[in-house]
C-alpha cells in the first residue's frame, strides 16, 4: 500500500497481477484505472416531449451516478481514473460545451424533475473539477506541485477554453472557490499564462468577425484593403436573415459574458488583456456595432414578438458586460496601484487619464460607461490620492462626459454614486464605484429603469434583473419570484449575498415575515392612449375605435369601382332630396282677411307703415341742447375784419412752424441711413467703410486705406458712365462697323 507522507507521484503500490501473482506498480498507472464508460452530456430538450424528457433524465442519472462514484474513490484511484480514462474527459468536456448558460435557463422546460436532475449534474461536475484542481487534499494525500502542474498541462485536464467555461457556468455563487481553484492551476503551472497571452488575439478576433458579419468597417490591415468591384455586397444587420441575426447576437452575448466572468473571478488575467490593447478595441467595437445591432432589433419585423424580446435582452446584457469588462481592466491595472499606494501611482494615474481621454470620441460608449461607473468618482479619487493632477485636464474630461450625454440625446440620471470612500474599502472584485455598477440600463432608451417588486425604482435593467432571478432560482427553485425580488431589493441586487443569507438563514427581519413562495406581483397595465385621446373625428361613422360595425360600402381605395362619369351625371338623387324643401315656397298669400277677435291673426298684427309721415324731427331735439349766448361766443375768439383795421397787424401765423409739405432731403437721407444701419446690425452685416480717395496733401504720404480705395476705384470705374467709350469705339472699328 501507499506510504504516508509520500507524494502520490513517488508512491509504489503492490497489487495482484492478471495471473494472481503480486506485482509492484507506480500509484499513477494506466492499469489501475477502472474500466468504466462515462456517457456524454446532452442539454435538456427545448420541446418538452415525454420521450425526450425521459431520455434526458436517464442520461443525466447515469452521469450523476458515475461522477459520484468517481468522487468517492480514494486519492490514488481518483487520479488514475482522471488521467487515464478518456471517456471521463469527453463527458466533462461535453458538459462544458452544451450546459445551458444564465440567459438560456428561461427557455428550459419547467418540469421539476428536469430542474432537479440538471442541478444534480451541475453540482457533480463542479465538484469533480474542484477536486481535479486540488493537488493537496490532506497531509497524507497530495501530489508534488511541479508534477501536478505537469500532469494537468500535459494531459489537457485544464486549458484556457475550459477555464473560461468553468467561470461562466459556476461563477455565480461559487466565485471564491472558483478563484482559489484557477489561482492554484496558474500558480502550479505558469505555462497557462503564456497560453492566455496567445488566446487574447483570438478573443479580439471575435469582435472583428462580428463587425465583418454586420458589414461594418473593422480595424487592422483588412480595413485598409479596397473592395473588389466584382465582390458581393456584405449583408448588414438590417438585411441579413432573422436566424443569422439571432445567431450573431447569441454569439456576442456568450462571448462577452464568458470573458467578463473570467476577468471578474481571476483578476490576475487583466494584465494580459490590458497589454494587448483590449480596452481600445472593445470601445471601438462598442461604438461601431452596438447602435447598428440595436437599430436592427428595434426596426425589423420579426416572426414572433418573443424572439425580438429575447434578442433585445441578450443585446442589453452584452452591452452591460462590455462596459463592466472595461471597468474591470481599468480598476485592476490603473486604479488598484493607486488604492494600494504603490510606487507607480503617477504612471497608473496618467494611463487612467489617457484612457478616459480616448473615450471622448466614443460618445455612446462614454455615456453608457459613465451611467454605470461615474467618471467623476474616479477623477475625485485621483485628486485625493495625487493632488498634483492638472485641474484643467480633469475639467476638460468632465466637460467631455457632459458633451457625450448631450450628443446621444439622453439626460444623465441623477443617481447618487459611491464616493471615493467606497473605493478605498475595496469591496468585491471591482471595488469602489463598482458597487453602484448594478445600475445601468441598456433597455430601450425611453425606458431604462424597470420597476421592482414593490413599485420602487430598480437600478438594474430588465434583462439583468431576469438574469439575477434565473441564477438564484437555479440554486433555490422552491422560492417564489416575489420573495426573491424583495430579497434583491433589500441587498442592493447582489445575488451572491442573497444566496448566502438565504442558505445561512440570516435574512433581515422584514424578509423573514414574507411568504417564501410569494409569486411575482402582476404589473398594472397602463390605460390605453385611445381612451384619453381627443379628435375631431370622434364618434363619426368611420370611428373604428368606438364602433364595432362600419359601413364598408362607403370605403374604397382609389377610384370607386363601377363608377363612370355618365353614371355620375345621370344621378339625380340630390334633386329628389331638395324637392320637399322647395315645395314649401309654392304657397303664395296675397291678402289675408283678419276677423275681429281672431286669435290666429296675431302673426299678421304688425304696425302699418305710413309713407307720408315725416320723421325728420323724431330723434333730433331742436334747441334743447343749445349753449347759452356767452358760451357761444367763447367758441372762437373775436376777430376784427381786415377792412376796419387801422395799422399793419402782424400775421397770427408768425412764430408758428411752417407747414413743410416737402421735407428736407438731407433729413430723409439721414433717416434712411439709420434704418439701413439698424437692418445691417440685425442681420450681422458689417457696415462698409467709407471710401477715402483724396487722401492727404501731396508730399505727406498716403495711408494703406487710401491706396486700396484708389485701386478699387481704378478697377471698377468702367462699370458706370462712359469711361470705356474709347475701348468700345476701337472694338467697333476693328469689326468694320465704323468706316475708317
Automatic annotation (TrEMBL):
Single Gene Ontology BP annotation: regulation of DNA-templated transcription
Extent of Basic and acidic residues compositional bias: 20-30, 667-676, 707-717
GO molecular function, one term: ubiquitin binding
Region called Disordered, residue ranges: 1-30, 647-740
Transmembrane segments: none
CUE domain residues: 464-507
UniProt feature, compositional bias: Acidic residues: 650-661
PANTHER family referenced in this protein's UniProt entry, alphabetically: ACTIVATING SIGNAL COINTEGRATOR 1 COMPLEX SUBUNIT 2, ACTIVATING SIGNAL COINTEGRATOR 1 COMPLEX SUBUNIT 2 ASC-1 COMPLEX SUBUNIT P100
Protein name: CUE domain-containing protein
Name of encoding gene: ASCC2
